Task: structure prediction
Amino acid sequence: MDINKLLSAITIIQSQGNKPTAINGIDADSRNIKADYAFVAVRGSQTDGHQYIPKAIEQGATVVICEDIPTDAPQNIFFVQVKNSAEALGRLASRWYDDPSQELTLVGVTGTNGKTTTATLLYEMFRLFGEKVGLLSTVCNYIDQEVVPATHTTPDPISLNALLRRMVDAGCKYAFMEVSSHSAHQHRIAGLKFAGGIFSNLTRDHLDYHKTVDAYLNAKKMFFDALPADAFALTNVDDKVGEVMLQNTRAKKYTYSLRAMANFKARIVESRLDGTSIAFDGREVETHFVGRFNVYNLLAVYAATCLLGRDKEDVLVNMSMLVPVAGRFQTIYSPQGYVAVVDYAHTPDALVNVLSTLRDVTPNGRIITVVGAGGNRDKGKRPIMAREAARLSDELVLTSDNPRFENPDDILADMQAGLDSEAMKHTLSITDRRQAIRTAVRLAQKGDVILIAGKGHEDYQEIQGVKHHFDDCEEVKKIFAE
Result:
């Protein structure tokens, strides 16, 4: 690419050295640098890319974009100083792939819970309209029908723009993506043009990274603050910070609600374990989803689809055909008359939402919950999760999730700290997740529901940095078949 075309995407403070006419590639990882590449030195949470400038030059970089030009910078290398190299990387990556988001109707979904379901159902909705659509989500990325495995909720800027370019080249007109707080804070979405943004809710999560709830909130809000004037900003006004998201956005503001005055309204008509009857703006629809939290997700999908210009009647017809996302309130029925529900709930609020829903639709049966907490993540939520799970369950089995580099028994001890002596009477602690699920099934009787929470769609357990195959749904089905 012509160097001037590339650099026109960013604001340059100053530059020095020999400027090449073109470059062959761009990367922020010095190990990936090749001859005539541009290296972007990004200050990350773990390492500072400025330390790897000599390595990048050794690998063949002829252009270095950084926040601080080294005092001993060689004159044969073109150095470009910017205010924020992480933001610059996002804009450069977008330009390198010829700004693919400009050729798509791109909608981002942010919030603590509901991002995956909302983004995935929007993808499914527009496929039902006969469109070619892209999806970037925690579970999986899709380029129309092509599956691209996901490694992060929001990929790094280069991978992200490469995927968006592939979507455009495949003929996709729409793309829906989860926007994590990390990606907003780290400027991974810098340079992207969004047609709309959706906010679901905000509860405690990722405090190992953001440290405070306010910092976590502000990271989410950064996405809305950056939306262009011709985009829509859609927020859940039933959430206590829903309207905060709209405070500084230039986008057109819209709201959705189950309780308050809003642009888009819904009401639960009837809840069952096999679905929910919902009235959207007064029109009743039978859906395959369970729980108030899913009604919010569906309402966001309905509102966003209408804002993207689709007729309300057509939207409602498609709503009745949508099905739950893998690992999100996924029900598995036992021949013995009890049901297992596999759900990704891994925050206190998500756990309360799922368990409250199960309590509503299981008036006569018991609820048996299997749950753990991830290692090397926010420790403060562990006792809260255990306390809420015990409060809303008849039997509780604490177990291992993804311990990562922590001792799983230490994680269980942190969870147990949230339980009083009464709660401990109906709580078991079984470190081995397979055995914990098996024990929960043994405890179940006809009419009971077993909730297996925390991992949802994940098909692995990460132990001491190694991923071992483990799928909650697979385990349940094996046990049910015995």
The chain has a mean pLDDT of 93. The two ends are 60 Å apart (CA to CA). The longest strand covers residues 264-272. DSSP finds 16 helices and 24 strands in the chain.
